[in-house]
């Protein structure tokens, strides 16, 4: 159980860590800026390496923030870091690249930050820079208010999904009940129909038999009437003529 909890904490820590990296070419006499939202209770690590240059292997890093809304490209207030970062050329044999940079804690200063890579001090064609950022939890057991809000939102979504699944289960149970009801009703009606068919068969047979008997009796009486033989309508006395 303890190992499982440790794995869950480690997974949560990794999930709360945001890493991004990019390779950018900064022309001479210019700069490139990027904005990112950094949550509270984070430690930000900024790493820079100049991998190609026709001049010195250096680049100026400036950082601004935090801002309540995404800053514009021209916005230059809230500056808290401005330094020329120098790295050594890549090792041609091992292709190793030296990275330099700095880190800072947001604590209660979460918000939008702007990071600029400046090459205004160089007139050469440009420098290819590897720039990476890493925003991880400062302490594994301390979450920022954004994380708490996201957790509450996720829990609300989970409860909504659970409610929907429970409603679907009730609907399926109702459908199953109705199917069983119709099945039992069909069985009862089938038995009733078979019983009715049997009664109708015997009733019809008796009717046909009675009609046949009556018809036979009528035929016999008519034959006796027209033949003049004894019977119900025959005379027992004989006439004598004078």
UniProtKB/TrEMBL annotation:
Coiled coil start-end: none
Alphabetized UniProt keyword annotations: Membrane, Signal, Transmembrane, Transmembrane helix
SMART domains in the record: EMP24_GP25L
Record's subcellular location: Endomembrane system; Membrane
Signal peptide: 1-21
Family of the protein in this entry: Belongs to the EMP24/GP25L family.
Annotated protein name in UniProt: GOLD domain-containing protein
Species, as recorded: Saprolegnia parasitica (strain CBS 223.65)
Lineage: Eukaryota, Sar, Stramenopiles, Oomycota, Saprolegniomycetes
